[in-house]
Amino acid sequence: MKCSNCGFENKDKAKFCTKCGNSLIVKPTESVPAKSNNSKYLIIGLIAIIIILIATIGYFALNTNSDSVVSNENSQNADSQNNVQSVGESDNEANEESDSAKTTTVSSSKTSTTTQSDSKEWVSIGSYSGKGSGSETINVPEGKIMVKLSAYPIKNYATNHLYVTGSNGESGGVDWGSKSAVETRSDSFTYTSSSEEIFTIDYYETVNWEVEFFRYQ
Fold first, then answer.
1. 38 by DSSP, 3-state: which?
2. What is the Cα gyration radius of the chain?
3. 30: number of CA atoms within 13 Å, CB side?
């Protein structure tokens, strides 16, 4: 076997050169270039896949953003329309409230007028009282008049009484029979007159009596 280093011919089974000591074992051919080429192809493939993935993600991202923009624009348009409608409704409500306020004002003025017309009340214009037996004459002015009277008898005689009689024929009173309970009795009446009236208060055998005149004014 010829030495690759010095060219000396050695035996076929020799492992080292007898002259220079170089190894005569033939090393297998390394396939490094092939592996290197395969690695290059693999790297190129991975890069291509990554580029495709990035392009795909970018495409979907752009579409999503554009959809979001369109959705936002639609939302803004809808909000604008709602705002316009709300402004219109607010104006209508304001007009309705204004009309309602006008109506309320009118109603209030009517109520005020009614209240003023109904603000009259019964006012005392004279009060008279006494006891025993006798009579009195009273001048009562014109208007709507109410008379209230009450009396308590000494005993339950058949003639115990308190009578109030007017020149216009209006009258009222209380009396007790011989079998009536000895207690206070009351009466009242109203009338309307356009002129002054004269009333007579007649009382008999009373412990106390009272007559009061009221006018509606």
1. helix
2. 65
3. 4
Q: Tens place of pLDDT for every residue, the chain, 217 residues?
A: 788 888 888 777 778 888 788 887 766 555 545 455 677 888 888 898 999 989 889 888 887 765 555 555 555 655 555 554 544 455 555 455 444 434 333 333 333 444 455 699 999 999 999 999 999 999 999 999 999 999 999 988 889 999 999 999 999 999 998 888 999 999 999 999 999 999 999 999 999 999 999 999 9
Q: Pull the structure tokens for residue 75.
A: 């939302």
DSSP letter string, 89-129: HHHHHHHHHHHHHHHHHHHHHHHHHHHHHT---EEEEEEEE
- CA separation for the pair 202, 164 (Å, rounded): 6
Q: 139: which 2 tokens?
A: 């001048």
**Which residues contact residue 120 at a Cβ distance below 8 angstroms, ignoring those fewer than 6 apart?**
216, 217
Tokens coding 71: 């959705």
What pTM was computed for the model?
A: 0.47
Burial zone of 107 (CB within 10 Å; 0-12 exposed, 13-18 middle, 19+ buried): exposed
Cα separation, 42 vs 39, in Å, equals: 5
* Separation between Cα atoms, residue 184 and residue 153, nearest integer Å: 7
- Beta strands in the chain, from DSSP E residues, in sequence order: 122-140, 143-153, 161-166, 171-175, 185-193, 197-216
Instruction: Decide: 188 and 149 in contact? Cβ < 8 Å.
Output: yes
